[in-house]
DNA sequence: TATTGTTATACTCTATAACTATA
DNA sequence: TATAGTTATAGAGTATAACAATA
């Protein structure tokens, strides 16, 4: 429990604040666009996008939850919402009777495609406009490293609970 | 309403996803630390921090709201929570009878100082560890530009409502 | 026994609209 | 009339714990 450590340098603070504020503003803007054009929250969109990326438009609940941080019950809630709207369907897995496979419906795929255009446009407009190619490259590189590190580092007191590999 | 636009390049997608994921993970980690060590949500911490930064530890409701995006009512809620915990006090302004000034109490200042240490430590551990000085500089520069742009660009359909300058 | 997922429940947060009061 | 702020209210989202079923 390090009770003290060197105070952060101004440029470190600037970088930290910038990440937080940009992340917040970006999420806010994107969330609004998704709601207006597709009636989706950002997380619902992320779930659809994750399904759209995967091989046959289907994934297990647990794998989605792992990827999108959610608590299990939170994911159950969101998937229920999507299912109620007919955007996804729940199927039982033939391999493992315990697991539930979530599959994109044609309607879900259609909506995803439709919303994605505006999504990309929004991101381009508010995020990429002030950046040149080199900025984009550097940003992806640096933040990519941060992301990998964050994924690897356990959230401190958490994580060392029950996990398979652990 | 641009129905189509060139698809984003892979490096653009990488940069965008990295910003979003890093922002999310960072906020999540920070939020957890703040809750554990101070019983504060991230937004409550931000309010306290904003007050701590300002000249005499006090600011108007509206100025806080403008800075932290919140709706007015949302800010009223959060400040009420903080006031109920004795961390801030509401005062009426002598200059403008309509406005409410929020002031950090000694207890609030003490908590802020106490929590800040862990906050900085957390950010350092999960965010700055994989970065060298140049990374930090570049990140602050690039994201700083993005932030300034996002602040300037209206959220599309919003904003052009009632604003003084408008 | 561990894992997958759901349910019940309670809580936090946010936004909208209506309202009061001051400028 | 515009601004500052509150309140009521309703809805979305989240987390925890208890639970059932399968591996």
From TrEMBL, chains A, B:
<feature type="domain" description="HTH marR-type">
    <location>
        <begin position="12"/>
        <end position="148"/>
    </location>
</feature>
<dbReference type="InterPro" id="IPR000835">
    <property type="entry name" value="HTH_MarR-typ"/>
</dbReference>
<dbReference type="InterPro" id="IPR036390">
    <property type="entry name" value="WH_DNA-bd_sf"/>
</dbReference>
<dbReference type="InterPro" id="IPR039422">
    <property type="entry name" value="MarR/SlyA-like"/>
</dbReference>
<protein>
    <submittedName>
        <fullName>MarR family winged helix-turn-helix transcriptional regulator</fullName>
    </submittedName>
</protein>
<dbReference type="InterPro" id="IPR036388">
    <property type="entry name" value="WH-like_DNA-bd_sf"/>
</dbReference>
<dbReference type="Pfam" id="PF12802">
    <property type="entry name" value="MarR_2"/>
</dbReference>
